[in-house]
Amino acid sequence: MAFRLIDIENWERKEFYEHFINQVVCTYSVSVNLDVTNLNNQRLYPAMIWLLTKTVNDMPEFRTSLTEEGLGIYDDMHPMYTVFNKENKNFSGIWSYYSEDYDAFLNHYETDTETYSTSTRYAPKGGTPVNSFNISMVPWLEFTGLNINVFDDGHFLLPIFTMGKLFERDGKRMLPLAIQVHHAVCDGYHVGLFVEKLQSYIDCFA
Q1: What's 6's DSSP letter?
Q2: Half-sphere exposure of 197 toward its Cβ, with a 13 Å CA cutoff?
Q3: Which of these, 53, 131, 179, 203, is most buried using a 10 Å CB contact count?
């Protein structure tokens, strides 16, 4: 894992970053429907976790973070995600190492979910990488909008993704996805490009 500091004084985004991190602290969320018909023969949750991470790793705007070292960009990211305990109807947040090879990632995912899916703790797996981001799913809810309120100092810059309940439309399987970002590092253009890339990866997934 490498973290490359941004030279803010020579950064083309300096004015926009300083406005949305200091003057008008602003996060926003966008909800879209993804066509996941091509994933019919796959286990949806791990496939989508991998596809989201692959897309995040394509775009520096989704890997930008403000740390004790300063503002910078991680070279790559790993997913943190929730697993549901069917007995006590609660969830745990765990993480898995990302790999460009889906089968390798799926092996990590299966090992971790088998180990922790019956946990009664909020965060049963230690050692969460600093270069990780949040993914969750609410498969009981077909939503058209979802907003997560992070009550911090307004400096949490990494994205948060929430998937919803599958539904059918015109013979296609659709998946709601809410994307939460910080305006200091990510504009509507970047979210639009992210969704375009993600849908392309879904369509090409084999």
Answers
A1: P
A2: 16
A3: 53
Active-site residue flag, 183: yes
Question: Per CATH, which fold does 27-154+192-206 belong to?
Answer: Chloramphenicol Acetyltransferase (3.30.559)
Question: Where do the H-state alpha helices sit in 72-204?
Answer: 102-116, 188-204
- Catalytic residue, chosen from 78, 108, 182, 183, is 183
Residues belonging to the chain: 206
> Is the pLDDT at 1 greater than 80, yes or no?
no
pLDDT, tens digit, for every residue of 83-137?
Answer: 998 888 899 999 999 999 999 999 999 999 999 999 999 999 999 999 999 999 9
**Residue 191 DSSP code:** H
Using CB atoms within 10 A of its CB, is residue 60 exposed (0-12), middle (13-18) or buried (19+)? middle
10 secondary structure, DSSP code: G
CB atoms inside a 10 Å sphere around CB 149: 7
